[in-house]
Amino acid sequence: MLADKDPAGFVAGLEGSVDAWYAATTAGDRGLAGAMLAQRAGLVDATIHDDVASAGEAAIAAAGPADVVLAAGSFQAAGEILRRRVIIGALDGR
Question: What is the reported pTM?
Fold first, then answer.
């Protein structure tokens, strides 16, 4: 999520629907450190990641067959996960 967004409001909207949170550092001038994102959102149990790609990979690895991984917070974050999964899927046949 970018630094000028409302992490607490975003998380409140998903309360009760999320089993695990992965807070990632976003790059750029409006970027926000993953630890700061978790703090602002009140996510005491979130795992913290240095970048969106590693957070996405951790979430995908932890997901079961019936789980859904939601990459959200900014188009930048969601786009990074989609790009990586399309590339990885093309390479390994998924």
Answer: 0.81
